[in-house]
Design brief:
heterodimer, A: Rossmann fold, six-stranded mixed beta sheet, globular, B: alpha+beta, elongated, binds adenosine-5'-triphosphate, binds magnesium ion
Chain lengths: ~240, ~400
């Protein structure tokens, strides 16, 4: 497989070691977490509520700085970078899909996507082309002018995925993307996410859904801030 | 930066209901400020116009009663050195003498109780009171003529029914407290001295004969423009070298000063109100932006996740706030100008809109920036992880 061919040659996309995160007064959300993820992989993070999954995802997505540990993203050490540099990396390399409320409610579906594209410096006809293709890809072109509040939960998540992958980020992070959806919609979303994985990028999905975890190439369990790799991925 | 501005503008338009409320508050403030500026300028120009018709500055020097023994010339001699004095003479105005008497016109039997003014011809001229009919006795030669003469204010003369006679040069007689007098002249109202028109005006000699000499001899001194204080500072010494302090000076309100102080008063008032309005507007913007930050936590989180930095978010909020302030200031200025135009048409005031109102949109930018500062900083502090956790 191409993904493997590349992972042997290139450094891992994500290389974390000894990450700890504490919250006042005395919560240890993450304890000495180490994680390595190669290009082309899809990783499921499972674990009970409060185990630190979202915290880990926020650190992976550079939305939060860990208290300790090292994080190298695509060969670049992030520890000493400024807030502006980190924002720049988020802009270029990272896509996010949250469990809900992904969309800005006073912008239409297409404007939500164009908003992301402008932030990422893509404008004009190029932006419109990309937006068009992204919405087509998730089957929402006919709803392009709708307000997010008139979309179903599944449609909202499809819009969020369209927005996250429209710039082809290296790392796509999804925090329980199907948490509020029925199984039919979950499947659609899952496939949209996994279909975006290619040789030069990777996906991390936080989920409670074993069906989704089983569809990913790898699976880790977080429990009380400790990360443990478990077998059983890649069966779908 | 261009993107941030564009986003700020889009947000303002899209969140139009919320922003409309703030905008209305700002527009109202700006309208009031503009209208206030214009209406104050218009109305004080109007008031000032009325005052500028008044006479030019006068100094009133109150000499002690002993000075009645001196002739007018002796007294005026002391002022010879003053080049800024254009005219001076004795005039104890009716309100200064405060003594009343009864005038009777024997022909008609009309009896009127009125006030007396004691004046020399020079004194009347110093206050710009003139004789319209007949003549006024020149004090130096009063002894040579009939000392029992009197001049009458124009209104008093017509009420006594002697105007026609005097006009025709016929002899007219009145009695003052029972003493018969010949009416030698009728005084035209001096500007700003309407009391003279109902007064009996006599020379010091006549007043002495009647026993109505006022306790002080008041000298009316007309000075050239802006010379009042210079002249005033030396006057006491010149008039009463032994004791300059014994000559109190009065400066009947200078119309220019009055005008300036009126304008200043209304401008100060306007300024105070403007500052209050500006503060109210600022709080209104702070409030909206604060609410906006809270309401838009998710949007802020999404934007951070999409790659904006906290600084970008702050700037965007600041720009929104500044746009809001500018827009409100500008619209308010326009509406206010129309209101001022309307008011000046209705009230026949001059349409004056000080150029300063152009600063209102500028003030809007500044107030917007100041008011947006705290919310903008708060916006950048929002923890995007809250977004991950929210369900
Ligand atoms: N800002 C914070 N301040 C204090 N404690 C926090 C903060 N953020 C997270 N925590 C705590 O850290 C722990 C991990 O939280 P996290 O949200 O990562 O859990 P999770 O695995 O995503 O849970 P869930 O499955 O319910 O979403 C929890 O105990 C939580 O209360
Ligand atoms: Mg979570």
């Amino acid at each position: 497989m191409m993904a493997h061919a590349r992972s042997n040659a290139a450094p891992p996309l994500v290389l974390m070691s000894g990450i700890t995160q504490q919250f006042p007064p005395n919560t240890t959300a993450l304890e000495n977490v180490s994680l390595s993820l190669d290009h082309g992989q899809s990783l499921a993070i499972v674990g009970p509520s409060g185990s630190g999954k979202s915290t880990l995802l926020a650190i992976l997505g550079l939305l939060e700085k860990p208290d300790g540990g090292d994080y190298i993203l695509d060969g670049r050490a992030l520890g000493k970078l400024s807030a502006t540099d980190l924002a720049q990396i988020r802009k270029n390399d990272i896509g996010y899909v949250f469990q809900s409320f992904n969309l800005i409610d006073y912008l239409s579906v297409e404007e939500n996507i164009l908003y992301a594209l402008t932030i990422k410096g893509i404008r004009g006809s190029q932006a419109r082309d990309r937006m068009h293709r992204a919405l087509e890809n998730v089957g929402l072109l006919h709803r392009r002018n709708a307000s997010p509040s008139t979309l179903s939960g599944g449609e909202q998540q499809r819009t969020a995925i369209a927005r996250a992958i429209v710039t082809a980020p290296k790392l796509l992070l999804c925090d329980e993307p199907t948490g509020n959806l029925d199984s039919a919609n979950s499947n659609i979303i899952l496939h949209l996410i996994l279909d975006s994985v290619a040789a030069n990028n990777a996906v991390i999905i936080v989920t409670h859904d074993e069906h989704i975890a089983a569809a990913c190439t790898r699976r880790v369990v977080l429990r009380d801030g400790h990360l443990r790799e478990t077998p059983g991925g890649g069966t779908l | 930066m261009r993107d941030l501005l564009a986003r700020a503008a889009v947000t303002l338009v899209r969140r139009s209901f919320r922003n409309a409320l703030t905008l209305i508050a700002i527009v109202l403030s700006a309208t009031t400020i503009t209208a206030l500026f214009g209406i104050t300028a218009g109305s004080s120009a109007q008031t000032a116009e009325r005052f500028s018709q008044l006479d030019s500055p006068i100094i009133q020097a109150t000499l002690p009663a002993t000075e009645w023994e001196n002739s007018e010339n002796d007294i005026l001699q002391r002022l010879v050195g003053f080049t800024n004095i254009t005219r001076a003479g004795t005039l104890d105005l009716p309100q200064d003498t405060a003594s009343s008497l009864t005038v009777t016109a024997p022909r008609w039997g009309t009896s009127i109780k009125t006030n007396i003014a004691v004046a020399t011809a020079q004194g009347l001229m110093a206050r710009q009171a003139s004789i319209t009919s007949g003549s006024y006795p020149v004090s130096e030669s009063v002894s040579a003529r009939d000392p029992y003469t009197v001049s009458l204010g124009s209104r008093l003369a017509s009420e006594l029914g002697v105007t026609a006679s005097v006009n025709q040069g016929l002899s007219a007689r009145v009695s003052l407290n029972g003493t018969e007098m010949a009416v030698t002249g009728i005084l035209q109202d001096a500007e700003n001295q309407s009391e003279l028109s109902t007064a009996v005006v006599v020379t010091p000699q006549t007043a002495a004969l009647l026993g109505l000499l006022p306790p002080n001899r008041t000298l009316q001194i007309r000075v050239t423009e802006n010379a009042a204080s210079t002249v005033g500072s030396l006057l006491g010494l010149a008039l009463h070298p032994q004791d300059a302090e014994a000559v109190p000076l009065k400066y009947p309100a200078s119309p220019e000063k009055l005008r300036a102080s009126l304008m200043q008063d209304s401008q100060n008032l306007t300024l105070i109100i403007c500052v209050i309005m500006a503060i109210v507007s600022a709080f209104s913007i702070i409030n909206t932006m604060q609410i906006a930050v809270t309401e838009r936590r998710r949007e802020i989180g999404i934007s951070l996740a999409l790659g904006l930095s906290g600084k970008d978010i702050s700037i965007q909020f600041l720009l929104e706030s500044m746009l809001l302030g500018t827009l409100g200031g500008f619209i308010g200025m326009l509406i206010g100008s129309v209101i001022v135009a309307g008011a000046s048409l209705l009230l026949f005031w001059p349409y004056i809109l000080p150029q300063e109102v152009l600063l209102i949109p500028v003030a809007g930018i500044i107030i917007g920036a100041l008011a947006g500062l705290i919310p903008a900083i708060r916006a950048a502090r929002i923890d995007p992880v809250e977004l991950l956790r929210s369900t």
